[in-house]
Input
Amino acid sequence: MRQYLCVSSVLVLLVSGCGEGFEKTEMLPIDKVPEKVIAVAKEKLPGVKFDTAWTEKDGDKTVYEVRGKSKDGKTRDIKITPDGTVLEVD
Output
């Protein structure tokens, strides 16, 4: 019975995401990303060809995540607010 409770607890945490993350994620065509966001992405990750984007909503905040590949084939991501603030670079 004890093992069942442990497994159940872990599953609940995995499904709920431990309370972290964004409320809503939406795919976005790359040509619909604001020019300012793309300009900052290109400045911070020069040489990356961006091809995928989505918005993430957390309450009233919007964050754009833009993904592309570098010339050596490495996938790169960057999270940027609409005003051009960089939140994360991978």
Q: What stands out?
A: The CA atoms of residues 60 and 83 lie 14 Å apart.
